[in-house]
Amino acid sequence: MKIEPLISPDAFVGLEGLTHLCTGGESPWMKSHQSVYADFARLKSLGYDGRGEVADRTEACRKKVARLWNVPAGRVAFMPSASEGMNWLARGLDWSAGDNVVTTGVEFPSVGYAWRSLESRGVEVRRVPHCRWKVREEDLLAAVDDRTRVLAVSQVSFYTGQCLDLHRLAEVASRRGVLLAVDATHASGVVEVPAGVTDLCVSSSYKWMLATHGVAPCYLSPRAENRTAATCFGWRNLVAWPRDRMEVVPDVPVRPMPEKMEPGNPSLVSVMFLNNALKVLLSTGMDRIQEHARQLSARIAAGLERLGHTVITPGQSSARSGNTCFLSDEAGSIRDHLRSRKILVWGELGRVRISGHLYNGSRDVDRLLAALAEI
């Protein structure tokens, strides 16, 4: 079956003659972003009025994230990175010795190590191991007990491409009073993100969301907001100037969401790039993008297995994402070989990760597999 790209690679900078299969590391740059930067530069020079227009674009972006994740816009904040979103929760909860956090043993550091400073205070971090590279939801839930405060996972694994069933995790976590914290960096923009069932959901923007570094949208549930104190303060998240007067007063209220998580301005130009990228994702449709990515993943996995590679991405469609991964002690060499054939993948840490997104098609997959067969 031939799979055509959902949007043309011609919409991106520098893809002429190049097969780009490394969105899990860095997405290509949309040509339409060039006009966004010019617009930002124009507004930046307009002073007060320009700042107001940029603020309007920021709120428009917040609404688009809310639409993408199916959550209220007023519960979406802009963090500087996904790591900061997870650490915001770790800093803000009122921990006691004997509490625990449940996560996985194959997590990205921003999730796996966000709780590091708590261990010296008697908080246990439970790292659930994989089973043949699959993290089983039942194993995660079995590790939860009456002292578990947070269940922290990536919706999609950066290492294997596995997509966890967040609805299953959320049902048990909610019933037991546990906060579900999710890094959706390898999910948002390529598969559906049910952020509304989580308590914290954060995503980088420079991968599948087709934007750039400097901004990470973050959803915070009312339950998590009530339990979490702000730990970083500034003009934006405080009622800093009561009665519109310039005076510093001792007891200053903290604003509710979304300002609660935004002590100062986010990276406004990064937000404008994200706003532009979300137009493409939303107009294409997440249901179409998800199905497209999973079809590409199945085709890639089947070809890899024919070549004798050990694929560690689950075979079940609902557990797939845009990432398809296989083990190799020569991951870096394979990456370099493919690069010499003008095919970009991500190869490190003992595995090669192949990422198919909406600008890829079966022709890219066939080219990849032919180049791998040369090794």
CATH superfamily of the largest domain, by name, is Type I PLP-dependent aspartate aminotransferase-like (Major domain)
For the sheet with most strands, the description reads: 7 strands, mixed
Strand/helix succession: EHHEHEHEHEHEEEHHHEEHEEEH
Low confidence ranges: none
Radius of gyration: 21 Å
Helix content: 25-40%
CATH architecture of the largest domain: 3-Layer(aba) Sandwich
As for the number of domains, it is 2
What's the N-to-C terminus distance?
A: 26 Å
Describe what is shown at a glance.
With about 375 residues, the chain is of the alpha/beta class. The chain contains 11 helices and 13 strands.
Verbal overview:
This protein is an alpha/beta fold and 375 residues long. The chain is 35% helix and 14% strand. The protein has helices spanning 33-44, 47-69, 82-92, 109-112, 137-142, 166-175, 222-227, 268-284, 286-306, 331-340, 362-373; strands at residues 19-20, 76-79, 100-104, 124-128, 148-154, 179-183, 200-202, 216-220, 310-311, 323-327, 343-344, 346-348, 351-355. The strands form 3 sheets. It has a 7-stranded mixed β-sheet with strand order 2-8-7-6-5-3-4, sandwiched between helices. A 4-stranded antiparallel β-sheet has the order 9-10-13-12. Strands 1-11 form a two-stranded parallel sheet. Helix 1 (33-44) runs antiparallel to helix 2. It is globular. The relative contact order is 0.17.
